[in-house]
Design a protein that fits this description.
The structure is a homodimer. The first copy, chain A, is mainly alpha-helical. The longest helix of chain A has 20 residues. In chain A, strands 1-3-2 form a three-stranded antiparallel beta sheet, with helices on one face. The first copy, chain A, starts with 12 loop residues before the first helix and ends in a 6-residue tail after the last helix. In chain A, 29% of the residues are buried. In chain A, α1 crosses α3 and α2 crosses α3. The first copy, chain A, has five helices and three strands, in the order αβααββαα. Chain A has two domains: 64 residues, Arc Repressor Mutant, subunit A; 36 residues, no CATH class. The interface between A and B is large, with 42 and 42 residues. The first copy, chain A, binds a DNA duplex through α2 and α3. Chains A, B: GO terms for molecular function: DNA binding; DNA-binding transcription factor activity. Chains A, B: It comes from Ureibacillus chungkukjangi. Chains A, B: Keywords: DNA-binding, Transcription, Transcription regulation.
Chain lengths: 125, 125
DNA sequence: CCTTTGTTCTATAAATGGTAGAACAAAATT
DNA sequence: AATTTTGTTCTACCATTTATAGAACAAAGG
């Protein structure tokens, strides 16, 4: 999986990393059961600090996407059940981007097609 | 339009305000041509600092959603043409939320229905 | 004429983001 | 068994961001 960090971005490095790992899973490049590199190895690979990678991993664990097993590694979790709480968090994430797309002039149909197109880039389960 | 600011949130106050104004426009509660309150009046109303509202307004202007006319007010803009650059910014905004929803276990169909449902809360143009 | 307006400036305080180094105990490897 | 690697934890430092505060200004509005 190729990670591309932009130091100049206004998005924090650890967030860029978190998002790109999630996108890698969505695309099927890495799958549940697979291990992520160690924080030290990944940090050296990306040219960032160990603590920055560590923060990203803990963010992913908080979201329920990976499981950090001390002295063993960060393993991608299997998908658990969809709770109402999780669904509301996801909806809260969608809210501002949908409203902005609509206000900036995209039609409902265009937005739906954009979302469908992006979903087609992801690997079916 | 009702604005609800959560001081305890990890989302900056000016971002919360920006998003809720955008959502208000999307719902049709405020329309192009309408004026937003003055930074001082809005700040007093919300119980936040004048500069915080000012920052939100400038963020909205940067996005092309309002026009700040000095000594006159902040007027909601009409929708301009959809450029390829704007579409790519919107797509970049969708990317992480779609990937996360998918990885957290929502099916493509569920995601599409969630988006459609949220779009139906918005006022047709 | 007076108030309101957005802008601009300085200032302060807390939180965030990123890097850095060191130390530790446990797991994995050799 | 000895060594390396691992995630964790701690302190430390620095720049930026977030939020508030007050003051001053010129221009628009009533």
């Amino acid at each position: 999986m190729i990670i591309h960090i932009e130091a100049e971005s206004d998005i924090p490095i650890y967030t860029q990393l978190t998002n790109q790992i999630i996108e890698g899973i969505a695309r099927g490049e890495i799958a549940p059961g697979d291990s992520l590199p160690s924080v030290r190895a990944f940090a050296a690979d990306l040219g960032v600090n160990m603590h920055t990678v560590n923060k990203s991993y803990h963010e992913l664990e908080k979201k329920g996407i990976i499981k950090i097993v001390p002295k063993s590694g960060a393993i991608i979790s299997s998908i658990e059940q969809m709770t109402e709480e999780k669904k509301q968090l996801i909806e809260a994430g969608f809210k501002p981007v949908i409203a902005e797309a609509f206000v900036l002039g995209m039609s409902k149909k265009e937005i739906e097609e954009l979302v469908s197109g992006m979903l087609n880039q992801m690997k079916e389960r």
